[in-house]
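pipeline stage [seq->struct] | target=YndJ-like protein | organism=Streptomyces natalensis ATCC 27448 | residues=287
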Amino acid sequence: MTTLVRLIVMLGMFVVIPLGVALIDGGGVARVRRVWPVAAAVGAVALWLPRGPLATGCAAVYAAATLALAAQAPRRLARTRSLAPSEIAVLTALATPAIAGTALVAERAGYRLFGFDLDILALTVPHFHFAGFAAALIAGLVCRGSGGGRAGRPAALSVPVGTMLVLAGYFIDDWAELAGALVLTAGMWLVGLLTWRDLRAAGPDRTTRALLGCSAVVVVATMLLALSWALGEATGLPHPSLAWMAATHGLGNALGFALCAILAQRRLRTAPPRRPALAPTLKERLA
């Protein structure tokens, strides 16, 4: 696991998931969030230790927290009884960090889970922090913020569907992974379009609009890189290396898309409601 990948994972552990979970309602989610910093700290230690029992034990602590978060998905579904597209995206966000946590335990143990190379397991960890948790959560929030509609509902659905297809592609073949990348890319581009067209235009202040605009623009480029890599893997055409993908697609998704989008969503949630413009007084009309 390279230094860059470790740092990206730590950004997910310490910043993206805690800030994102704070945007999800529910008492059980709040309890997980309270213990998350401790689990993230132990999980971060696992990233820097050499593979072995100690690193595996630390990774298992973090994996337990991700499983506790995933357990909130069926509880939330039982409470809301909603399968609206935006809600499906939020349920996906709750569940996917557990995939990252499981992959982290296997990679730190040096165990080829399901026969996957350790390098693939190492990259699965950031993938399901960002393409799993962050992308699905943001898709659901953008769908709600834009009022749903013809673009909002497909955007909210295609991100979790694409993420799961990419995961399935790991077990099937490169062509199945390419199909998942196509669906995920289409969904992320729809999220970017809605963010730029609807949310950014109605942003309450310049900083929020800048964060929304950055996330909308960056996701177009990063998903194009992901698509080129999946196409190259399936067809044998020249494509970026995994190291290059981590430095471009991975870093761009983490900082430019996920972090900016979640910070913007937090600002949107805490922004005071806009007051309608007051009608001019008689004196102002006569002036």
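stage status: PASS
auto-comment: Residues 3-270 form a domain with the Cytochrome C Oxidase; Chain A fold (CATH 1.20.210.10). Residues 281-287 have pLDDT under 50 and may be disordered.
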